[in-house]
Amino acid sequence: MLSVRDLSMRFGGLLAVNGVSLDVNEREIISIIGPNGAGKTTVFNCISGFYKPTSGQITFKGKPVQGLPDFKISRLGMVRTFQHVRLFNRMTVIENLLVAQHRHVNTNLLSGLLKTPSYRKKEGEAMEKAAYWLKKVDLLPLANREAGNLAYGQQRRLEIARCMVTGPDLLMLDEPAAGLNPKETRDLDELIVSLKHDYNVSILLIEHDMGLVMGISDRIYVVSQGTPLANGTPDEIKTNEDVIKAYLGED
Ligand SMILES: Nc1ncnc2c1ncn2[C@@H]1O[C@H](COP(=O)(O)OP(=O)(O)OP(=O)(O)O)[C@@H](O)[C@H]1O
Predict the structure, then answer these.
(1) Given 28, 83, 93, 183, which is the most exposed site by the fewest CB atoms within 10 A?
(2) Residue 83: inside a domain
(3) Whole-structure pTM value
(4) What is the pLDDT of residues 160-212, one digit of tens each?
């Protein structure tokens, strides 16, 4: 579904990503791990269109996407969350999900102004979808709260729901467990696995919580100082000497 080949990203004199390649197949949970500053978020930013990579090829569902702007990439079915939650804080929880759907499809301004039957039908469907995903992430009772007033863990779940209402094929999560308590992390674990099994979504994940990564990943890519270090199943990665050294070297 997603194929990244020889991706590099240079910021001035710093080669933040150096020759990273990875694949995500249908219904796979793939993690990218590595010490702080390894270049993981930069890889995400290149794949999702926030940065234009210095070099490399990125194809999604067979189409080259490197250099496309983020909104075009998300319309192709690849959506992401951010390391620092980005919601519309002054809007309600449900409004956040409605806006996400509006931004995702080309809505016709005139039909919106005239409130044509087809527009009303779409509005109804958007509302149903929003309610469905709020229920799934346990936020339905809070639908009319301001998003900015939610607890941190709830905001993170809302971000995932906001991605899911757009019906993605690939969901990219940047450190979704950061700042969550153990119970919230377990719920997140279940949610991610359910997205794969019940909704056929592939997941690309950056995460420092090794319990979560090792428990849910089909395969793991390790990067260190921008460079690919290893890739394999959780069991292969756990016992890889280079990986152990890179992590111990961090302390
Ligand atoms: N926009 C930017 N301009 C200049 N340097 C950047 C930019 N974005 C990232 N970097 C640098 O690139 C390197 C990789 O950063 P990146 O955030 O991708 O690492 P990371 O693996 O995601 O780290 P962490 O786990 O701490 O989030 C770092 O040295 C960082 O300072």
Answers:
(1) 183
(2) no
(3) 0.90
(4) 999 999 999 999 999 999 999 999 999 999 999 999 999 999 999 999 999 99
ipTM of the complex: 0.93
Same domain? 21 vs 123: no
Q: In angstroms, rounded to a whole number, what is the distance separating the alpha carbons of residues 202 and 28?
A: 5
Residues 163 and 173 in one domain: no
Ligand 1 pocket: which of 15, 42, 205 to mutate (most atoms within 8 A of CB): 42
Pairing of strands 170-174, 63-64: unpaired
Q: Strand, helix or coil at 175?
A: coil
Type and span of the H or E element at 231: strand 227-232
C-alpha 175 to ligand 1 mean position (Å): 14
Please tell me the predicted confidence (pLDDT) of residue 251. 47
C-alpha 9/C-alpha 244 separation (Å) is 26
The Cβ-side half-sphere exposure at 71, using a 13 Å CA radius, reads 7
Q: Out of 110, 138, 167, pick the residue that ends a domain.
A: 167
Give the residue numbers spanning the domain of 44: 1-77+169-250
